């Protein structure tokens, strides 16, 4: 075994060891540890996502990984006392229920949810989601938000759990870094955004709406909330009425709309390119 100083390494060769229960049965419908109804843990999968967990407000309580990943993560792991359960790929597969190509997992308790005022503090650009209930789309929105300078995400009605393992994985760990908050009264709390100086910009496929590219420069000096809805139904009409501006992305060849994460990314880019 490779000697790694300053890291709490615990070799494990028994897949039934109860110390590994935080990582057990990740594919199980009713026993998986990342369900809020179960252990309510956040699972980081892969070197990069584990690194982002260590850099976030999520405090890991354990890791499970191979010797190769231990070597790659050694510098990062010296910042925590959480144990690194060192196991073979075969033992890991028996614990989690499938072969894990990424070779390392981290587990952290879910912290107290942030409030709307907390995520709005200091923000100039936020994403607001309604009905985005697909975990992969949700993860992609977080990854796009991180890459294109969005300060926070606000969830309206009907959105999926951003801390579900698949959402965290698809986001490349940015669901742990980009702050988010849940609204309690939807869409009434769009007024809270306005009270904090945000212009609420709603994405729509309506061909009568002005284009995103033409509208965004007129909001360059404003704080902006970019509002996107689920694929198919889009934003509820009540939500649209509660917005300040409706905008569209011009579409060609009979296509009426884009994937929600792609559409959001285009809006984030139009906003980002106006930054000094």
Description:
The structure is a single chain. The strands form two sheets. This protein has a six-stranded parallel β-sheet with strand order 8-7-6-10-9-11. Strands 1-4-3-5-2 form a five-stranded mixed β-sheet. The protein is built from ten helices and eleven strands. The N and C termini lie far apart (51 Å). With 276 residues, the protein is an alpha/beta fold. It has two domains: 9-109, 2-Layer Sandwich (60s Ribosomal Protein L30, Chain: A), CATH 3.30.1330; 116-272, Alpha/beta knot, CATH 3.40.1280. It has helices at 47-54, 67-77, 89-96, 116-120, 135-147, 165-170, 190-195, 212-215, 237-241, 260-272, and strands spanning 9-11, 41-45, 62-65, 84-86, 104-109, 125-130, 152-155, 180-182, 198-203, 223-229, 245-247. Helix 5 runs parallel beside helix 10.
Q: Please compute the radius of gyration using only Cα atoms.
A: 21 Å
Determine the structural class based on helices, strands and strand pairing: alpha/beta
CATH first level of the largest domain? Alpha Beta
Question: How is the biggest beta sheet arranged?
Answer: 6 strands, parallel
CATH architecture of the largest domain: 3-Layer(aba) Sandwich
Q: What overall form do the CA principal axes indicate?
A: elongated
Alpha-carbon distance between the two ends: 51 Å
Fold topology:
Layout: E1 9-11, E2 41-45, H1 47-54, E3 62-65, H2 67-77, E4 84-86, H3 89-96, E5 104-109, H4 116-120, E6 125-130, H5 135-147, E7 152-155, H6 165-170, E8 180-182, H7 190-195, E9 198-203, H8 212-215, E10 223-229, H9 237-241, E11 245-247, H10 260-272
Parallel strand pairs: 1-4, 3-4, 6-7, 6-10, 7-8, 9-10, 9-11
Antiparallel strand pairs: 2-5, 3-5
Helix pairs in contact: 5-10
């Amino acid at each position: 075994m490779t000697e790694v100083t300053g890291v709490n390494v615990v070799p494990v060769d028994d897949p039934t060891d109860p110390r590994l229960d935080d990582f057990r049965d990740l594919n199980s419908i009713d026993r998986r540890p990342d369900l809020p109804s179960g252990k309510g843990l956040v699972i980081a999968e892969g070197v990069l996502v584990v690194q982002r967990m260590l850099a976030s407000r999520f405090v890991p309580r354990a890791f499970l990984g191979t010797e190769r990943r231990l070597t790659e993560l050694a510098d990062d792991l010296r910042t925590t006392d959480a144990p690194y359960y060192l196991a073979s790929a075969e033992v890991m597969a028996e614990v989690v229920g499938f072969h894990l190509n990424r070779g390392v997992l981290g587990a952290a308790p879910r912290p107290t949810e942030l409030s709307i005022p907390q995520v709005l503090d200091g923000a100039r650009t936020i994403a607001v989601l309604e009905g985005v209930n697909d975990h992969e789309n949700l993860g992609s929105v977080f990854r796009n938000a991180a890459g294109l300078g969005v300060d926070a995400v606000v969830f309206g009605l009907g959105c999926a759990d951003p801390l579900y393992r698949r959402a965290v994985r698809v986001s490349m760990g940015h669901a742990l870094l980009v702050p988010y908050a849940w609204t309690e009264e939807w869409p009434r709390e769009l007024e809270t955004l306005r009270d904090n100086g945000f212009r609420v910009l709603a994405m729509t496929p309506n061909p009568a709406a002005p284009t995103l590219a033409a509208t965004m420069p007129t909001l360059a000096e404003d704080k902006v909330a970019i509002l996107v809805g689920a694929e198919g139904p889009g934003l509820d009409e009540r939500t649209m009425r509660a917005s300040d501006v409706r905008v569209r992305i011009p579409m060609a060849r009979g296509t009426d709309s884009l994937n929600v994460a792609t559409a959001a990314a285009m809006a984030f880019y139009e906003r980002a390119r106006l930054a000094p």
